Amino acid sequence: MKDRSAVIWTRLGPQPVKMGTLAVTDIECRFTYDEGYTDTGLRGLGLVYAPEFFTSTIVRERNEYFDLMPPLQALVPPRSEHNFQRALVLKYLKQINLDTQPGFDTDWNILIRSGHGAIGHLDVFESDEIAIQWYATPSKKGLIELDDEFGFSLKEFMAWFDDDAGILIDLLGPTPTVGGAIPKLMLSIAQSGWDGRIGLPTRFGDTDRTDIILKLENNAQYPGIIELEQLGLEVHREAGFDVPRYWPVKIKGLAALAIERFDRTRTGGTVFMESVYSVLASGSNEITNHYSTSYDHIASAIDNPYVGLVNDRAKAKHHLLERLLLAMLTGNGDLHLENLSFLEKNNETAFSPVYDPTPMRAYSIHNELTPPGMSFGHYGDMNDDGSFIDFSTALLHFSKNLGITRSILFDSIERLVKVTDDYDKRIEALSALPKENKLNLINIHLDIKNKLVSL
Ligand SMILES: Nc1ncnc2c1ncn2[C@@H]1O[C@H](COP(=O)(O)OP(=O)(O)OP(=O)(O)O)[C@@H](O)[C@H]1O
Ligand SMILES: [Mg+2]
Question: Which protein residue has the closest C-alpha to ligand 1 atom 26?
Answer without folding.
Answer: 181
